[in-house]
Amino acid sequence: MDVLVIGAGGMIGRKLTDRLLAAGEIAGRPIDRLTLADVAAPAVPAGAGLAVESVACDLAAPGEAERLVERRHDLIVHLAAIVSGEAEADFERGYAVNLDGTRMLLEAIRAAGGGWRPRLVYTSSIAVFGPPFPGDGTLPIPDDFHTTPQTSYGTQKAIGELLLDDYSRRGFVDGVGIRLPTICVRPGKPNRAASGFFSGIVREPLAGLEAVLPVDDDVRHWFASPRAAVGFLLHAAALDTGLLGARRTLTMPGVSATVAEEIAALERIAGPKAVALIRREPDPTIRRIVSVWPSAFDARRALDLGFTADADFDAIVRAHVDDERGGRLPF
């Protein structure tokens, strides 16, 4: 297989790259070549056992998508995006990256022609959903719930899902869209995602640092670990798309938890000294954005198709401790 990962410089992209290199195959098909693309050329992991190319590419720039897909890859994983808070703050950039870049990629594939029909795994988001939610937010959102996003980021992702459906229907790509839960606990430094505090209130205390909590303890959300997210991508890459029908995008399974339940999991694993590092500092802008996000799903389609999630929020915290901190706790 010839594999292209777009957005390979991001956290999920790096972790996916590591998994691909470690496995060396997808669904029994050996990976012969791996191309890593991002706005800045991603670092190539040392000791890669196969041919790896790193390229700098801005999908929203004219001609860049066409250049990127010249190799006619068998599998393309599209992770490139700017995050929710940044897309809300910078309207033009959000549409340029999250929508125009996606459409230019699809158009470049279509224009290549010649019967080339790659598997395209597109990362969408649960931000495509907006209120009113079932039971005024007390019931899980089913697979057939309408998409009415209340943020620019969610709108951009919802349009991308429709494009994926149509380009798949027309035979230009063999698309699978996955609506990712909020990924938690994200390693590294905070980004501009409105959801970043969900990771911060766990990640920083586990490093012995203070964390800011901008919302109330009863805010509930839908989560998956980075480890689970990479598993979703790999499963989507190998999925029998004949089982999807016309609806190419699936809501991924996850863990529904409140901020209070996050904090309780942190305390069970790292103790009260870690929890004491959380400082409450209300932020009306973040509260407004988060208030229109969904909090729980009945992801039956994805589960029936073999996608698997973390068992609970304790498992999400432990995955971060094991994968990012070598099993070390701060206290």
From TrEMBL:
One of its GO terms (molecular function) is oxidoreductase activity. Keywords: Carbohydrate metabolism, NADP. It comes from Oharaeibacter diazotrophicus. CDD domains: Gne_like_SDR_e. This is Nucleoside-diphosphate-sugar epimerase. The keyword Phosphoprotein does not apply. InterPro entries: DenD (IPR050005), Epimerase_deHydtase (IPR001509), NAD(P)-bd_dom_sf (IPR036291). The keyword NADP applies. Gene3D superfamilies: NAD(P)-binding Rossmann-like Domain, UDP-galactose 4-epimerase, domain 1. Residues 3-211 form the NAD-dependent epimerase/dehydratase domain. NCBIfam families: ErythonDh. It comes from the Bacteria.
